Amino acid sequence: MTTRKGTNRRSNIPADVLHQLNAGTIETVTLAEILAINFAKLMSHVLPEATDEAANRFKPSDGITKRMSLAGQMLLEKLGTSGYKHVVAHPSDTVRGWAAYMVAEMSNLSLKERLKRVRPLADDKHFGVREWAWIALRPHVSKQVQEAIQELSSWVDASSANLRRFAVESTRPRGVWCAHIAELKSDPEMALPLLEPVKSDASRYVQDSVSNWLNDAAKTQPEWVANTCARWRKESNTKETARICARGVRSINV
């Protein structure tokens, strides 16, 4: 993991750092750096033969998630499914994020197979790759909610906090940078197999995801969230559960 300090302003990114980011030789350290990357330039280093096509297909006016999806499509078109192994090991966190979108674009895969392929990215050392992993698979999760909960129920027992967090974050009723999941907005109880095992998780990374999940649900089912948190506090008298519940009901208590 890099120890380089980044900047939160795109305009303050040094020219040499931006050059290396666009060449895919270093990782980003801030969201500003992620958003500053020129996808056409980066793709030209990953797939030199697609330089002209990348320049035409990537438009700065497109949102970041649209460009990520397009990059995954391009890589799958040019490299095929076997190219995933090369992309998933790339030194650039953005390119590894593209690998997640390759998985999302692969045809004829079951949800179980997609989750298996994306698992290394869900547990990546870089925060950005972990975000792209769940965002990329979110459309598949939202279409197969029951199956997703079943498949991810083993992830919340994983030793890695990253994997536990993925299971929760990918199923948030509302989430960020993604479409809502109507089934979980109306019936959040469906997701208890994912939430119960982490109601007192030691990792703040996981705690924040669980509390944000509850806060999402509270927008449509406040009584359920309030009752669930009241029950959790009785069953699990820990500071971790107290923190999760305090944050989970923050919209209800406004």
Written overview of the protein:
By secondary structure, the chain is an all-alpha fold. It has two domains: 143 residues, no CATH class; 109 residues, Serine Threonine Protein Phosphatase 5, Tetratricopeptide repeat (Alpha Horseshoe), CATH 1.25.40. The protein is built from 16 helices and no strands. Helix 3 packs antiparallel against helix 4 and helix 7 runs parallel beside helix 9. The longest helix is centred in the middle third of the chain and has 17 residues. The chain is globular and about 60 Å long. The N and C termini lie far apart (39 Å). The mean pLDDT is 95.
Oligomer: single chain
Total domains: 2
Radius of gyration: 19 Å
Structural class: mainly alpha
Percent range for helical residues?
A: 55-70%
Q: Number of DSSP helices? A: 16
In whole angstroms, the N-to-C terminal distance is 39 Å
Fraction of residues in β-strands: under 5%
CA-based shape = globular
Tell me about the biggest sheet?
none
Mean pLDDT: 95
Low-confidence stretches: none
Short descriptors:
globular, 0% strand, 2 domains, 16 helices, mainly alpha, Serine Threonine Protein Phosphatase 5, Tetratricopeptide repeat
Short structural description:
The chain is mainly alpha-helical and 254 residues long.
